[in-house]
Amino acid sequence: MTNAADNPLAAKRILVTRAPEQAQALIHELHRFGAEVILLPVVAFEAPQDSGPLDHALRELSTFDWVLFTSQNAVRFVSSRLDQLGLRRPGPEKIVQRTAAVGLTTAEVAKQQGFPVDYVATDHTAHGLANELQGSVKGRKVLLPRSDRSGNHIADALRESGGLVTDVIAYRTVAPEEPDQTILDRIRAGEVDVIIFASPSAFHNLAGFLGVGELIKLAENIQFAAIGPTTARAMRESGVRVHIEAEEVSAAGLADAIVKHFRDRAIPPRQI
């Protein structure tokens, strides 16, 4: 017999909208709690259309005092471009002076790619990282590799703290050309219990496929989960209800928030 305490998400169908390369930790956490996971990637990532600014910064990497990674993708694309340019140094020598990461998962990916991490934000958001480093970047050269979707607000905050910021596009966030129509039909039919959004881009892309009005209606019966405040804000600004918001911006934090949501409300499983 299934132990509800060990499998609090048993009989729950949870839709994950992350790209496959980013979704594995979250899928593992959800499976651990007994959920059935459906993967519908609604975001994809590509190299910048113009890699010139990134390439120039990477060739001068040793001159920066800090490199700030605000996402796993920033780490992966910077690492990949270093290899493509032949700039990876063999041996134990540090690639950069000091490295900071937005959260534990990003920090782990950075370490795997050869970037020893000197600081991990306590508040696991890009804004939190910028705020926490205010006293450490004044007069320092800071490299901020980011998505084309993330805007200039983090770089502006660092500059206000006296940082000498080089803000470069490391990757582009795009929508897949052909999402799985069968899964979209299952969403329309209400055949999932939870839809997880781990970025504003994921939410906006799914809204593009289904329509914001349809999502607003679906939220009457399907629980919508946001990985953190930035994603939740984007959803609410579009008029979509956020039922679940993780307190810790991580795969484990999001899975725990979903478990807590169902336990607190004693919501019965959907009838199959």
Account of the 3D structure:
The chain has 272 residues and is an alpha/beta fold. It has two domains: 13-43 and 176-265, Rossmann fold; 48-172, Rossmann fold (3-Layer(aba) Sandwich). It contains eleven helices and eleven strands. The protein has helices spanning 20-32, 52-59, 72-85, 104-112, 126-132, 153-160, 181-188, 200-210, 212-218, 229-237, 251-265, and strands at 13-16, 36-39, 44-46, 66-69, 99-101, 119-120, 141-147, 164-174, 194-197, 223-226, 244-245. It has a six-stranded mixed β-sheet. A five-stranded parallel β-sheet has the order 2-1-9-10-11. Helix 5 runs parallel beside helix 6. The protein starts with 12 loop residues before the first strand and ends in a 7-residue tail after the last helix. The mean pLDDT is 89.
Quick gist of this model?
The protein folds into 2 domains: 13-43 and 176-265, 3-Layer(aba) Sandwich (Rossmann fold); 48-172, Rossmann fold. It is 40% helix and 18% strand. It is built from 11 helices and 11 strands.
